[in-house]
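Hi X.,

You mentioned you wanted examples for the new student's onboarding notes, showing what a folding record looks like when two proteins sit in one file. Here is a clean example. The first protein comes first, with its sequence line followed by its structure tokens.
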Amino acid sequence: MIAGLLEAVCCRLKKQLDKKRNKIDKKRMSIFQVSDRTLSVSVLVLPEASMMCVASVLDPLRAANRVSGQMLFDRSLYSLDGEPVPLTCAVPLHVEGRFEGHLRGDLLIVVAGFNQQLHVNSASLARIKSAASGFKAVAGVEAGTWILARAGLLNGHLATTHWEDFEAFTATFPDVEVKTDRFVIDGNTMTCGGASPALDMMLQLIRLRHGTPLALNAASVFVYDEAHAQTDAQPLVSLGRLVGTDRRLETAIRMMEERIEQPLPIAALAQRVHVSTRTLENIFRQSLGQPPGKYYLGLRLQSAFRMVSDSDNSIHEIAIRTGFGSLSAFSRAYSKRFGISPKRSRVKSQVKNLR
């Protein structure tokens, strides 16, 4: 009789243990596996995020629900204070409520853009970190990757961010392995570099959970062709319709991107593209309406403008990193291009950020 009682107790304990294990396994189950279960998606949008990034996150999921006729994705939109979020286009984005640390769900997506460090203080970061523990996966869109990294959620993971921030992000977060890919899915994390990669990333989520046909149908709602692979590098210049027009133009521009700090002479560039200098001049004039030297200079100055506005590098260091032999030559070129000196440009950007 005692043996029978012990067996019953053991059986009951085994059932309880199995039940707990099933709960744990269910919680740990990747959201990137095939499933018809409704996925609960919470999206936190920060001020100065791009409307295109927000739309690239939300609309593919809406389209998937629409074309499937099912509630495959349940989306909720939040801001840190529960108030409408001012986006970069000056349109306020209305949300469903205040983002709280006790929020729970399947996927937490953080969408951020400019000045993320000003919009998320230590208290807000603690809320985000607390909430993230209640989700099966987290995602960062554009500067949202910075927020996840600041919260320690990307340590030991592969990740990406917007191409303008690769160098600064790598230096700031040495425990995160930065990829130049359009988007990265690693374990229970997703990150991407901007609006177009965000659309690709969300379509990939749809594809992994519900198959390629649904992902294609969702993309077709936006008359969107997925022309890039996940691992395609983010370019400094989006060539768009120029791609395929003349491969020599694309090759030359990509070489320019790679040699911002140590610019190649145009003759050397032409040699690497396997054309004469005159032919390269004609290619650029016909496609872009300007000679390669002028285009190259503009590319370097745009890089300088971003560093002046968004980095703490000294003006002299920026001059060196954009291929100028002297500070005076850099200042002249910068002033001619933007109508303001580098120093005054920096002051102007700092005043703007304080408003």
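Then the second protein repeats the pattern, sequence line and then tokens:
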Amino acid sequence: MLKIHNRVLLLLVILLVVAGAVLPFINFAPNRLVSGESIALSRLPEHVGLILSLPVLILACLTLAPSRRLSLTLTLITGELLFIAMLWMMGHTASQFAEQGSTLARTSLGSGLWLSLTLCLLLCADTINRLTPNALWRLLLNLQVWIVPVALLWSGYFADLSLLKEYANRQDVFDDALTRHLALLLGTLLPALMIGVPMGVLCYTRPGCQSSVFSVLNVIQTVPSVALFGLLIAPLAGLVKLAPWLSSLGVSGIGVAPALIALVLYALLPLVRGVVAGLQHVPRNIIESAEGMGMSRWQIFWRAEVPLALPVLLRSLRVVCVQTIGMTVIAALIGAGGFGAIIFQGLLSSALDLVLLGVIPVIALAVILDALFKLFISLLEEKQP
């Protein structure tokens, strides 16, 4: 009797087959504002289906193989080839439609193709996690998955896709949004660290303060982001009215100022908790050993407690970064800019490609920062005794 050794791979293969058989793969529209015609995989040229079916069949067979290095390597290679084959099919089909249609025609990815690409990435990520426990090797293996796709993108192979056409038409807007989004992220992290770290140290050294500090921060965290942005408009507008010179510093009821204040307030709770948890995580015997060596309280804090608490603090900072990247999108509602402005403009004009032009970079930024934090934390923990 056949035995399934990799149930996760089996589930992903089943979902890939369902996505290819049921959901549309390509969407063709005469212009960017109409929904267009959904085209299933079965309606594409026969050779496309054969090219995509072969890796899926190999992956189905690999579910029966024990999870050893050879089978996992074959699974990773096959998953990558399937991912690249889908991207090739996507660009090739878009080029064919561009030759047949008008310059206004748009070829976009269907839900089946989006789901299939996501499943391929999940398959590769799961296989890499099984293949090696080393954080650096995991990062490198995940990066090499993108070598061929980035090369195809750089070569202009996907230029006929509607998403790339949208980017070409709005490249200046995209670059400005990226700059503003990163500026808001950096402008949130610096004040949050300057306020949150001392506050966390205070709560650690004086446990009696923890209850009141965390109560206030919890209340702030429970306020919906849109409501908090709105609540800051009137006080800041009144403040500028009383002190008009603040407007020269960029302070106003809408725009960057209320966005930064709200984002910093949201970042405080995870940061303060991270500092307190990290310092409490330091073993008592290490502190006693440092005291026995004659170190002062200040030396113990900087040379023993801070280095050992740093991984926990970085985990909290990682949460803050990902949270801030996402919440900055909402800040566009009060004129803060960033990718949120592109997303909401796309929603108002019912232009899906414009929405994706804002959504995809936000996801990419969050994933990249999360991976870098994971790597740095893992390397830091390996050096600790």
